[in-house]
Amino acid sequence: MAVQINPSILSADFARLAEEATAVEGADWLHVDVMDNHFVPNLTLGVPVVESLARATDTPLDCHLMIEDADRWAPQYVEAGAGSVTFHAEAAAAPVRLAREIRAKGARASMALKPATPIEPYEDLLPELDMLLIMTVEPGFGGQSFLDIMLPKIRRTRELISKHGLDLWLQVDGGVSAETIERCAEAGADVFVAGSAVYGADDPAAAVRALRNRAAEATAAAAWACGH
Asked: Per the entry, which co-factors are needed (predicted)?
């Protein structure tokens, strides 16, 4: 099972976004954090910037919407050029309908859970998704420390994915670095969002390769990956 590295432009230089997007050669996706200063206490960017980024890079965009009224706004990010759109379970009034609408418009549908939100109530929704995002920090700001208490939740989510035989990506976001990525992979994650660990490096593309190698080695040795 191949691991994927998604650099987060939240840690990039916003004055040079087009250049920063191309600086992470070899990345699988470019992770775009959209914040509205309501769902989270921070304000970042919106549809026009996503449209511009989609034109500036060949790397597909993975838009993580940390916004209220996700049911209204998420489809617009597909239209703006996102290849994957993540809405928060806590912000969606009708998550199944929203996931189906995102898919119908041609993008991958993903749902995110804040650290305090359990996975178990959403077990029946998993077949409607292409990816599930487990937040490993409180959403809102980059540069936070990884929450180790999320590792059991990652494991339980991987068990549910295996239980239902789903081809569902399991993404982690928050504090992912060379020091934490192996623990995430061992627990069951296969898509890794990394911000400062990539854009804070002297060579962002080399940082992507190094993170991929660490995650791949941990995955190969992980009990959950045996037989895949």
From this structure: Zn(2+); Co(2+); Mn(2+); a divalent metal cation
* Binding residue ranges for a divalent metal cation: 31, 33, 64, 173
Examine the residue annotation and report whether 202 is marked as an active-site residue of this protein. Answer: no
Output phi, psi for 195, to 5 deg.
-100, -85
Point out the annotated binding site.
Answer: 8, 31, 33, 64, 140-143, 173-175, 195-196
Helices 70-79 and 95-104, packing angle to 10 deg: 10
pLDDT in tens, 176-204: 999 999 999 999 999 999 999 999 999 99
Q: Which of 85, 86, 87, 31 is nearest to 57 (CA)?
A: 31
**Residue 36 is a catalytic residue:** no
Which residues are CB-neighbours of 151 under 8 A, at least 6 positions away?
183, 184, 187
